[in-house]
Amino acid sequence: MKSSIWIRPSALALTFAASLAACQHLPENTQTSAAAREYPATAKQPLVETLHGVAVADPYRHLEDSSKATEAWVKAQQIYGDEYLAAIPNKQSIIDRITELWDFEKISAPFEHGNHQFQFRNDGLQSQSVLYVTPVNGDMRVLLDPNKLSENGTVALSGIAVSRDGNTLAYGVSKSGSDWQSWHFIDVATGDKLGDELEWIKFSSASWDKDNQGVYYSRYDAPAGGDVLADVNFNQKVYYHKMGTPQSQDRLVYERPDFKEWGFGANVSDDGEYLLLSISQGTDPRNRVFYQALNQPNADFVELLPDLEAEYIFLGNDGSQFYFKTDLEAPNGKVIAIDIHRPERQHWQTIIAESADPINQVAIINDHLVVSSLHDVLGQVEIYSLAGEKRQQLELPGKGAIAGPYGKRSGQYFYYSYNSYIQPPSVYKYDFINGQTSLIAQAKVAFNPDDYVSEQVFYTSKDGTAVPMMISYKKGLKKNGDNPTMLYAYGGFSLSMTPRFNPANIAWMDLGGIYAVPSIRGGAEYGEAWHKAGMLDKKQNVFDDYYAAAEYLINEKYTSPSKMGAYGRSNGGLLMGAALTQRPELFAAVLPAVGVLDMLRFQKFTIGWAWTSEYGSSDDKEQFATLLAYSPYHNLTSREYPATMVMTADHDDRVVPLHSFKFAAMMQEMQQGNEPVIMRIESNAGHGAGKPTSMRIAEQVDIYAFLWHSFGLTLPERLH
Length: 720
Prior knowledge:
Elements: H1 16-21, E1 48-51, E2 54-57, H2 68-86, H3 91-102, E3 106-107, E4 111-113, E5 116-122, E6 130-135, E7 141-144, E8 155-162, E9 168-175, E10 181-187, E11 193-201, E12 206-208, E13 214-219, E14 237-242, E15 251-254, E16 262-268, E17 274-281, E18 287-293, E19 302-305, E20 312-318, E21 321-326, E22 334-339, E23 349-352, E24 359-365, E25 368-375, E26 378-385, E27 390-393, E28 401-406, E29 413-419, E30 426-431, E31 436-442, E32 452-460, E33 466-474, E34 485-488, H4 503-510, E35 514-518, H5 528-532, H6 539-555, E36 564-569, H7 571-582, E37 589-593, H8 612-615, H9 621-630, E38 643-649, H10 658-670, E39 677-682, H11 693-710
Parallel strand pairs: 34-35, 34-36, 36-37, 37-38, 38-39
Antiparallel strand pairs: 1-2, 3-5, 4-5, 5-6, 6-7, 8-9, 9-10, 10-11, 12-13, 13-14, 14-15, 16-17, 17-18, 18-19, 20-21, 21-22, 22-23, 24-25, 25-26, 26-27, 28-29, 29-30, 30-31, 32-33, 33-35
Helix pairs in contact: 3-4, 3-11
């Protein structure tokens, strides 16, 4: 996050009352011309900067300022968007069906510490899932109910860490979806909250020491600026908190003021003998690894893997032999062993070699390596000995995704969950003694998965690359080129778009809709090479892959541009902005949600600087040219655009809402067509994590209603 020119408006011709007066126009089935549509008034300033010799206009920069004028504009846009959505007929039918579909018991895979088993459960429509504990030979009981932390369900768990003996629970909470966390502690036996409290934590878990006396964690200094939700975050530090003492007495374990962009993940090894630091630099998947011997007083940290050359994930250790998953010279991943007494690279051992299927997750359980990997985006699980001998491949219930495995080094079993776009999560247990898998929990849902289809296809992108896509719909659908379709994608930060169940998608299919998800470049569906093919100066590949997916659906008669809706969140919101500015003719409606839309200034707010490893930075001349070429905010021109709903939230401190504010203001100015440009602005919400059930359902309802209305269709009065 680097400083730049900051212009505050000296005077804005905008009052709250005037804003409300501009919010009286509601949607009708007849089209309203852009000239006749009155959006909430937006001030415009003649701000032009010269960056690397290029004049760049930024007329809506004043919306970055959290002034009263901006607050009034936001409220006016919120009212305008809410009234537009409220006027769409028969929304209640979607509300009823999604609520019905959502109302089933949700059960996580169990995990164990000491003589206790822990598990999350949600009875169906609870705002937040509840953490239960089952002592050995005891009855299951509630340990922590996040629904009691706030009246509206907007305070959510952001992480938990149970002590090794299972006697103490550390848990993080965030308010209104903020990335900022505070951590608290509970006595597991009594359920009583302890007095310890840790503040100003972001992007950190907690790791208990060997003797269950305290936790290691990472935190930032309290923000020095005036805007907690926007101020930049640098210089994370590692601390040790001893139970029963105030945070002010926490011991500083490690810091690097000479490298302010370094972030630290602190983890104590299973044997309790070592503190491992995984040192990240922004969102770059590569990391460094340092360690400290905890059984040696005042031991220095050893820079075991000091170079930012590859990803290294610590799996566990046998004494001095450390196991890692890495993509060093293996883009699809491999498992290696390093003896810290002979750490030179020529002594490293390859335990599991790279294969054609990228490794997703590895865990050491029952002295075996349990490997979850992807085969053409779909999950698979294999079991290896610690020497790398393959023992078994599990037979899975179908073509879907795996979460897990979850188990202990000394355990005789592990758990995992399976789901697909049309099958809700089920929990399975694998037993090492008999080599068998058993079903532990299966959701009882208000639909029959056999009535739906989720198929995988492959299509060809602009440069000839084959890209997979999952297409889900209700059986009986005809390929007549007239089916309402939602095309969802992400394409970045090594995030793989594997199948994931969302009950609301079943309602979309019940309407007759198609839900399509291409695994475009930028993710890790085919390893780090797939990721690198969609980052920095290759970002256009991501966009082209997405457009090719839309063209495939059109050419194969699944749908047509008049029935095609585009939807993406965060980095996927950037993709939506590119779709609007590069290929608007492909879509009837586009929904950029919590998107990165100003590519020249994203690095100047909160943790935005961390994304420069993915996008580049406008501070670099060559990268500036690439970013300017596709930055959605800077590439809007006066033309006809599809119906657009720009989505954000007032407490988003990941992708700050100013991106959406500026982009929506520019779109409303530039729209020359008949379609609306509205905003959906959530209150008391953030980037998406921890959102209560009621808000999630309401969001899905508005997405479907907006798409359906934009397709020129009328929602049914009743949906089964």
